[in-house]
Specification:
The complex is a heterodimer. By secondary structure, chain A is an alpha+beta fold. Chain A is built from 7 helices and 4 strands; from the N terminus they run H-H-H-H-E-H-H-E-E-E-H. Chain A folds into 2 domains: about 60 residues, Arc Repressor Mutant, subunit A (Orthogonal Bundle); about 80 residues, Glutaredoxin (3-Layer(aba) Sandwich). In chain A, strands 2-1-3-4 form a 4-stranded mixed beta sheet, covered by helices on one side. In chain A, helix 1 packs antiparallel against helix 2, helix 2 packs antiparallel against helix 3 and helix 3 packs across helix 4. In chain B, the strands form 3 sheets. Chain B has a 5-stranded mixed beta sheet with strand order 6-5-11-8-9. The two termini of chain B are about 45 Å apart. By secondary structure, chain B is an alpha/beta fold. Chain B is globular and about 75 Å long. Classes of the chains: A alpha+beta, B alpha/beta.
């Protein structure tokens, strides 16, 4: 079931589109639900579909097409490091290695305590502050160094 | 003759950047913001006058293709009875591009005014700004700016006591480069996978929800209020032949001070490089991708003799694109760089057209094979062959965008690829 808070947020999004175009709110609805649960379960997909009045498959199609949706549970903190060209030129791979070492996992994996998931991401449109990463999609950490990464990890309880 | 830097840095889309609270309505208004909108709406300025001013200014689309904006605005049907839409493309996800983020961050009201003016000129009552999903802080800044504009009566119904209405909303992406392509963006706003549409019909006749729609880049819309405030001729004169006005250049990679610089079109590349603090660590320049990852790479000597405008960069064998300048120093392994770019296009291909879906996979796997030291000499011809077989055979330009780096990297840095194939390791990093 969608929580009352999620519904209130989804309704704000729905108000942006013509009344007969509820489907337009699918991307924001999925982001809202993912923020609440950390990922998108089959049940969440169905809940969003029912609320927007579109088929489950139409929602799943969107959830599986866009990279920032998670169709499997992740750690409490998902760290997505951009490794595209501008970040690569400023040693994003060194940041990835440092994180792999600190967390004891490889990209694509989650720590045993369920706290961190590490991913490589595509261009985040912020190449001027490379290297950088996103915490749970919405919190961007820029101009990274190994020291800054260590500080960040300390702060993510 | 080179333009004087101090007089022209950050003068159009970034004109609020050095002020306190640059993103606030108050700051924007202190620069005459929203006065053009108010004037044209209350005086009922004929749309054609505004379009002519834009044509005079020679403003060209800043999203990459450089299509003349005045002309694009004139394509919208005039006597159409139903709804029409305006869409702003703030989905920048082309590697090396990060200029629109700073417009949202430092001057969102100029974008809002530009879109509202567009709404008036093209008779659209509703607009959406599609914002790249990864820049959430800027999405929220833009939402706040919209609230401010609504509260001040600058967006909404019956603006300035007239019967003109314009409502504008923010829509976010969630991780798909392809949605920057304008018809994929339309699909995405409709709540679908971002798969580009076949053209024609063009968006001006069949766009969002099947209605006439115009899509422009953030920087394009944000340039409009300035042009109308100061005149098309003034904007034209800021630039050079065929490239009116100013341009935001995003400089990233191996420079001391990466960032955005808004300068007059035609600035010599060495001056732009100097603004970004020069090549970092005292190293030598090797190559530059001047317009985002989808345009051909340019070797250092050619780039150092090039000016930053559409025609000059075309003459240098590349494209101005979105003005995304990726700087590579002498330590750069061009095979590894191409490997990363090829992976990007493979990952981001929407899968709709076979040449792109299959071809981007081939390109990446073969480049990876070379970078892994397992390449064969025939691979270089194979890469050229696959690239030329993708180009021009797909619905949208992502296929061409994937082929371009491959062709240009091999063209200009072939010995590095050959060395990898012969020695199983890099000529540069060993
Ligand atoms: C794969 C691909 C990605 C694109 N990404 C963007 C983008 O992020 N931002 C943008 O403004 N234009 C992008 N474009 C260009 C748009 O299709 C379109 O030309 C542009 O938004 C039109 O606005 P303009 O005329 O103001 O430049 C992209 C095109 C392709 C083929």
């Amino acid at each position: 079931m969608l929580s009352a808070e999620s519904i209130a947020k989804i309704d704000r999004e729905l108000a942006k589109y013509p009344a007969n175009q509820r489907r337009s709110a699918v991307m924001s609805s999925l982001a809202i639900v993912q923020d609440e649960h950390g990922w998108l379960s089959k049940e969440s997909i169905s809940d969003v579909a029912a609320y927007l009045g579109i088929p489950d498959i139409a929602v799943l199609e969107v959830a599986s097409f866009y990279n920032m949706y998670e169709l499997k549970p992740t750690g409490k903190y998902k760290l997505t490091v951009c490794t595209n060209i501008s970040c690569m030129l400023r040693d994003a791979h060194g940041i990835v290695e440092h994180l792999e070492h600190r967390l004891g996992i490889h990209c694509g994996e989650t720590t045993a305590d369920g706290k961190f998931t590490l991913k490589e991401g595509e261009c985040m449109g912020a190449c001027g502050s490379a290297p950088l990463l996103l915490v749970n999609n919405k919190d961007m950490r820029e101009f990274l160094t190994n020291e800054k990464v260590d500080e960040m990890l300390e702060g993510l309880k | 003759m080179s333009p004087s830097l101090n007089a022209t840095l950050n003068s159009v889309c970034f004109r609020t950047i050095d002020k306190p609270n640059p993103a606030s309505l108050e700051t924007y208004r202190s620069l005459g913001g929203y006065e053009v909108l108010k004037r044209i709406i209350t005086e009922q300025t004929p749309a054609v006058e505004i379009i002519n001013e834009l044509k005079l200014s020679n403003l060209r689309g800043r999203g990459g293709a450089g299509f003349p904006t005045g002309l694009k605005w004139s394509f919208m049907p005039k006597n159409y009875e139903g709804d029409k839409y305006l869409l702003c493309n703030s989905d920048e996800g082309e590697p090396g591009t990060f200029k629109d983020r700073d417009i949202l961050r430092y001057n969102p009201h100029q974008l809002i005014e530009g879109m509202a003016i567009g709404g008036y000129v093209m008779g659209a009552k509703t607009g959406y700004n599609y914002i790249h999903g990864e820049i959430w802080a800027e999405y929220e800044i833009f939402e706040r700016a919209l609230d401010e504009a609504r509260a001040a009566g600058l967006l909404g119904d019956n603006l300035f006591g007239t019967n003109f209405s314009f409502n504008l909303y923010a829509h976010h992406g969630y991780g798909a480069y392809i949605c920057g392509e304008e018809t994929a963006l339309l699909e995405s706003v409709e709540g679908k996978k971002g798969q580009p549409r076949f053209k024609p019909p063009f968006p001006a006749s069949y766009g969002l929800y099947g209605k006439p729609t115009t899509i422009n880049n953030t920087e394009t819309f944000a340039s409009v209020p300035y042009i109308l405030q100061h005149g098309g001729q003034h904007f034209l004169d800021l630039g050079v032949a065929n490239s009116g006005g100013t341009k935001l250049f995003s400089v990233s990679g191996h420079v001391e001070k990466p960032g955005n610089f808004e300068v007059n079109m035609g600035l010599p590349f060495p001056e732009l490089l100097a603004l970004a603090g020069g090549v970092w660590k005292g190293r030598k320049l090797k190559a530059v991708i001047p317009g985002g990852s989808s345009v051909p790479v340019v070797p250092a000597d050619v780039m150092m003799a090039t000016n930053m405008d559409y025609d000059s960069i075309t003459k240098a064998g590349s494209m101005l694109g979105a003005g995304s300048v990726i700087v590579m120093d002498e330590s750069t392994d061009m095979v590894k760089a191409l490997d990363r770019l090829s992976y990007f296009y493979f990952e981001e291909s929407c899968g709709q057209c076979t040449p792109c879906r299959e071809g981007t996979g081939w390109l990446w796997r073969v480049v990876r094979r070379i970078a892994d030291g397992k390449g064969r000499m025939e691979d270089l011809d194979l890469l050229t062959d696959v690239s030329t077989n993708i180009s021009g055979r797909t619905i949208c330009a992502l296929g061409d965008a994937a082929a371009t780096p491959v062709l240009s990297f091999i063209k200009h840095f072939r010995p590095e690829f050959e060395y990898y194939i012969q020695h199983g390791r890099s000529m540069i990093t060993g």
